[in-house]
Design goal:
seven-stranded mixed β-sheet, 18 helices, single chain, five-stranded parallel β-sheet, alpha/beta
Length: about 500
């Protein structure tokens, strides 16, 4: 049998995953990457001796208790890499000094919450009882399974899925009699609003089981581990090689043209790059349907966690919580929006990210792409606004950590425009679920292939219309499994 060739566009997690599994299964592969490093959105960068992480919070499949663990083993992502498992998910504090700690040990969490409000014992028990029911099911690993296997696993918990999928954290918070718990509970899942309890309960169960953790070294080093596996297997990567056009003949993808004018051909073309750039740029919008068109026309302008202020502090913060939601006495304004709370991460748990005795602190905000894009037209105003936000963050953190203001020696502000420029993601966006998505999209993806175009596939968050590092890796893996089935090959993972 002749050796099939595959060109992969993009060396993010999905592209690297597709590349690894393709080489394992006997395909000749090459990856073209516009940037000078792997990872895509799974990235970190260095400033004055500090490493700023732009991606991972809780990595699904971090421990052997998850079926996803073997995927990271297959990809070499965990080789020589320690995992950090937090005892706390997040701590919420208010200006009056009250604190609610979401312990990752569910028994400890229940005890703590009852100490805060014994009057809410019944509601607290309902919450922790629900979390325990998710200890034996890993929703994030469903992408490894076939539909009938998912059905078998999900059937015993279908009532829980329906019940907790309809209730948001805000809804559940209203059950508490204690005013502080009512205020604090809605912000415990990364500070997002409108998060279904189903999502939070799965995260809490994963942290309890030690299957959600942090890979030491952070996002870029995690991506580099997979890059090393890919090249060790014999795969090739060309960096600073931007694909400008996907070549087609008779409605078949046959190759790519790079920005330097060179053309490269293969039997199969896979884009693990940004969805909008792929569909409307490289393919000029020729292979779409109403669903795809409406999806991108409805792109949100505002995105959670798309503005981050990172600080490098000459301060030992090893005794502080790693995640903190701080309700503010003095709200701050960001991108024309008032914030009564700071959601921060203190990277005191990974010594690889800062010099000894020093710490990286990161504050995350939602932001409007349009607001920052307009500002970017005037570079001076753009930089000034970034500095003002950093100053406001430092001022408020100094009240919680007295003396911090004088210890800050590195400041970095990344906006949605920053992420667009450095990762190539259109408007700095991550994928969102189509309005008519749901279970069908979870099973079949969104743009794994495009209407009317043969020999072409997509992998990653835009193919699935779902975010997450594990989503990207599974998308690449499942694509190669599909190709093996198409060409009547046995799919192997070694």
């Amino acid at each position: 049998m002749s050796r099939k060739s595959i060109i992969i566009i993009g060396a993010g997690i999905a592209g690297l995953s597709a590349g690894c599994y393709a080489v394992m299964n006997g395909y000749d592969t090459v990856i073209f990457e516009a940037h000078d490093k792997p990872g895509g959105l799974c990235t970190s960068w260095n400033r004055r001796g500090y490493t700023i992480d732009g991606c991972i919070h809780h990595l699904a499949g971090s421990g052997p208790g998850s079926e996803l663990y073997r995927v990271w083993q297959e990809l070499g992502a965990l080789e020589g890499r320690g995992m950090v498992f937090h005892d706390e998910f997040v701590r919420v504090e208010d200006p009056e000094g009250r604190a609610f700690t979401v312990y990752t040990d569910i028994d400890r969490l229940e005890q703590h919450m009852k100490q805060l409000s014994i009057a809410d014992a019944e509601v607290i028990e309902e919450y922790t009882r629900a979390a325990r029911r998710f200890l034996n099911i890993d929703l994030l690993a469903f992408g490894l399974l076939k539909p009938w296997q998912i059905g078998m696993k999900a059937l015993p918990r279908i009532g829980d899925f329906i019940k907790w999928g309809k209730i948001t954290l805000e809804d559940f918070a209203q059950k508490f009699k204690d005013p502080f718990l009512r205020k604090a509970f809605p912000v415990i899942q990364y500070g997002f609003s409108g998060i279904p309890m189903l999502i939070h309960l799965n995260f809490l169960a994963g942290c309890h089981n030690r299957t959600l953790g942090w890979p030491s070294g952070g996002s870029l080093q995690f991506a580099r581990s997979i890059e090393r596996r890919y090249t060790a297997l014999g795969g090739r990567i060309h960096y600073r090689s931007r694909v400008e056009k996907i070549l087609t003949e008779d409605n078949k993808a046959v190759g790519v043209r790079l920005s330097d004018g060179t053309e490269h051909r293969a039997d199969t073309i896979v884009s693990a790059a940004d969805g909008h750039t792929t569909i409307f740029g490289m393919l000029e919008g020729k292979y779409i349907d109403d669903g795809i068109s409406k999806y991108y026309q409805a792109a949100p302008d505002y995105l959670d966690m798309s503005l981050q202020v990172s600080l490098g502090a000459a301060r030992d913060m090893s005794r502080e919580p790693h995640a903190l939601a701080l309700f503010l006495e003095d709200p701050l304004e960001v991108s024309g929006k008032k914030y009564e709370r700071l959601d921060i991460e203190i990277f005191n748990f990974d010594k690889n990210l800062a010099p000894p005795g020093k710490t990286v602190i990161k504050a995350m905000f939602g932001a409007s792409y349009g607001y920052w894009k307009d500002l970017r037209a005037d570079r001076e105003r753009y930089e000034y606004q970034k500095q003002e936000i950093a100053r406001a963050v430092i001022d408020r953190l100094d009240k919680r950590f007295p003396g911090l203001k004088g210890q800050v020696e590195m400041v970095d502000v990344a906006t949605p425009v920053t992420f667009e420029n450095y990762t190539g993601n259109w408007k700095g966006l991550q994928a969102w679920m189509p309005p008519d998505g749901g279970f069908g999209t979870m099973m079949n993806g969104f743009t794994r292939s495009l209407p009317g175009l043969d020999n072409f596939y997509m992998a990653g968050q835009w193919a699935e219309a779902m975010i997450g590092i594990s989503t990207a890796a599974l998308s690449g893996r499942n694509l190669v499994r599909h190709l093996c089935k198409k060409y009547k090959r046995l799919f192997v993972t070694k």
